[in-house]
Amino acid sequence: MLDRRRRALTAWLAAAILMTAGAPASAASLEYVGTYIWSSSQDSFGGFSGIEISADGSGFHALSDRSHLYWGSIDRDSQGILRGMNIAGYARLKDSKGLFLEPGYLGDSEGLAVADDGTIWVSFEGFDRIASYASPDSNAGLHPRPPKLPGMGVNSGIEALAIRDDGTIFGVPERSGLETRPFPVLTYRDGSWGRAGEIRRDPRWLPVGADFGPDGWFYLLERDFRGILGFASRVRRMQMTDDGPQDEEILLETQYLQYDNLEGISVWDDGVGIRLTMISDDNFLFVQRTEVVEYRLRD
C-alpha cells in the first residue's frame, strides 16, 4: 500500500512539474506613472469623454460630451511625466449642413478616434450615429447609422470608439440590454456596418472608451458608479480576430474614488513601451475635476 501511494505521489509531482513548465507567462499589468489635473477658464471646458494622444506623445485631441473638440501640445519632464496640457485651439462640432451641434440629443458626443490620415471620427449616443471630420472646423461627413441592437437607445449608444490600423472603425455600446448579455462589437468600413463578435460582460462594468494600441491589442476602458462611493475604473485588453475577441486580460481595476470619472483612453508608445493615457469627465460639476491619468504597460 505504501509503495502504491509513493508511486501515485511521484506521478502527481511529475505531472505538476510538466504543467508548470508549459504554463504561459503571467498576465500583463499596468504600472502607475502619474496624474495631471487639467483646468481652463473657458466655459466649454470640461465633460471630456474621449482623448487621443499623438504617436510621439507630444500632442492631443480631447472631446467633450457637448460637441467641443480641444487640441494642443503636451509638456513632459525628463522622466516623461505629464506636466502641462497646452490648448492650441478648440472648435464646436457641426452637423452635415454646417450648423453647430447643440448639447443634448444631437450633440451628445462620446467616442473619439483619429485615423492615420488625420480624419476625426466621433460617435454620438443621443441620436445614435457616427460622423467624420476632415478637420475640427469642417462639416460632419454623413454615414449610415449603426444597426439597432438590444440595449442601444437614448444615452446608451456607441460609447467606446477605436480605429484599427487597416482603417476599420470599432464601436462598443454602453449597454447590452441585460447584465448577463455580452456587449456586441460593431465594425464600420467602406460605408457598411458589420459585427466582430461579443465582449464578455461583468454586470457592474460598462464600456466608456477604447483604443487600439501600437501592439495591435484592443484596449477597453470600463466604469462602475456607486453613488456616494464614487467611480471605479477597469481596463481590459483583447485580440480582435475574425472569430471575435480572444485572449482577454484584465490589466487594471481601481478602487472607488481613486480617480474621477475616467471616460476616454488613448494607447501609444512612449519610446520605452506601451503607455495608456486616460481622461475624466467632470460632468461640469464643481465637485469633480478633469484628471489625465497615465499608466505604463508591464508584460
UniProtKB/TrEMBL annotation:
Residues 1-27 form the signal peptide. It comes from Paracoccus caeni. It comes from the Bacteria. This is Esterase-like activity of phytase family protein. The keyword Signal applies. The keyword tRNA processing does not apply. Keywords: Signal. InterPro entries: Phytase-like_dom, UCP031900. Residues 44-284 form the Phytase-like domain.
